[in-house]
Amino acid sequence: MKICVMPGDGIGREIVAQALRVLDKVGAKFGRKFETQEALIGGVAIDATGSPLPEETLRLCKAADAVLLGAVGGPKWDTIDPSIRPERGLLGIRKELGLFANLRPASLFPELRHACYLRPDIVAKGIDLLVVRELTGGAYFGTPKGVEVRGGERVGFNNMIYFEHEIRRIAKVGFEAAKKRRKKLCSVDKANVLDVSRLWREVVIEVSKDYPDIELSHMYVDNAAMQLVRDPSQFDVIVTENLFGDILSDEASVITGSIGMLPSASVGEGNPGLFEPIHGSAPDIAGQNKANPLATILSVAMLLRYSVSDMDAEAAAIETAVQKTLQQGYRTGDIREEGCKLLGCVEMADAVLANL
Ligand code: NAD
Q: How far from the centroid of its chain's Cα atoms is residue 20's Cα?
């Protein structure tokens, strides 16, 4: 399996280096061969080539089976021309690879329940859900859009528009993800008000015919936002459109309370997927061996599970090793608690490797 690796900026290089050690060990344990090639993105790419997403990076990504990313951005590039900001590299690669589905798990390791923002009786039921968000359609990209003057006053407008094929393909991603999990899919829409949501619901129901073993439910987005804090344990996989997914995926991850723990995946059709931690480049702790590498290590697990070659057992081995490490009381600074064994970035990866 060919993996294009883009450490990026800030803590990116430190966390990706540790994730690659884990990947190596998984390869040795399961007799898999991973070929990695490094590419530039973000601020380091601007420094080296003047562009946040150089042509060479695109070529390497497109030739790979999967892409692993650290993080991009930092104060050094905050004041440069917005058209070549590091974040442009990230938007550019998502677009170039046609990544229309964003998969964001929000799971709370029981060992980290102290970090969760919810009441203990709610947390006790467990949180282990996956938000599948449509990434390239809806109000963020729909036309017509703009701000203009009509009848002597300004008017702003966007268009929440979905073609049937866009709904069908994201629904399929949702059902496939549910198949790999607890076989429950909740489609979130606003079909009581929005026409686009009515079509959304219709198409999701049509796709469900191909997945008789998956339990499908529907929920309005306002209720879903409330249910996520009231009882997140009811959810397995949530599938929803771009704007609703943007909000719900952030809500779901923030309730777990630990940004250094959460991986994500963006996938398309026929192109390599992009796997990355949800956090940024954390310039405040970069280069100090303080970063939590677990979100990136868990991103490698997602890479194995959701990329072409379907390596569920390998992914599960990584997740189990991470959980064991937490059970042993090891913590980085961001998830520290009283009585824990505080480790640096490298030492945390050492502990995961030992458990693997
Ligand atoms: P951030 O996620 O980088 O950091 C927020 C806080 O969380 C900081 O205190 C940081 O130290 C801490 N943190 C984040 N990841 C951690 C980890 N693995 N271990 C321990 N602590 C961790 O968000 P920010 O400070 O708003 O942004 C910093 C830079 O990152 C900006 O340039 C921003 O544009 C960029 N950014 C990039 C991405 C991405 O690459 N996907 C995402 C968000 C922000």
A: 18
250 is catalytic: yes
157-186 burial, b if ≥16 CB within 10 A, otherwise e? Answer: eeebebeeebbebbbbbbbbbbeeeeebbb
Shared domain check, 247 and 273: no
What's the gap in Å between 245 CA and the centre of ligand 1? 20
Backbone angles phi, psi at 238, to 5 degrees: -110, 130
Q: What is the mean pLDDT of the chain?
A: 95
> How many whole angstroms separate alpha carbon 272 and alpha carbon 58?
11
Residue 12 near ligand 1, beta carbon < 6 Å: no
- Mark whether 284 is an active-site residue: no
Nearest Cα residue to atom 6 of ligand 1 = 282
User: What is the number of domains present in the chain?
Assistant: 2
> Domain with 204 in it: what CATH number?
3.40.718.10
What amino acid is encoded at 225 in this protein? A
Residue 140 falls in the annotated catalytic set: yes
- For the entire predicted model, the pTM comes to 0.92
Give buried/exposed letters for 75-94 (b at 16+ CB in 10 A, else e). eebeeeeeeebbebbbebbb
* pLDDT for residue 83: 82
Which of 255, 274, 302 finishes a domain?
A: 255
Residue 309 reports pLDDT greater than 70: no
| pLDDT of residue 276 exceeding 80 | yes
Q: Check pocket membership of 26 for ligand 1, CB cut-off 6 A.
A: no
Instruction: Specify whether 17 is located in the same domain as 139.
Output: no
The last residue of a domain, from among 217, 235, 255: 255
Other Cβ atoms less than 10 A from the Cβ of 220: the count is: 16
The C-alpha atoms of residue 19 and residue 3 are separated, in whole angstroms, by: 12
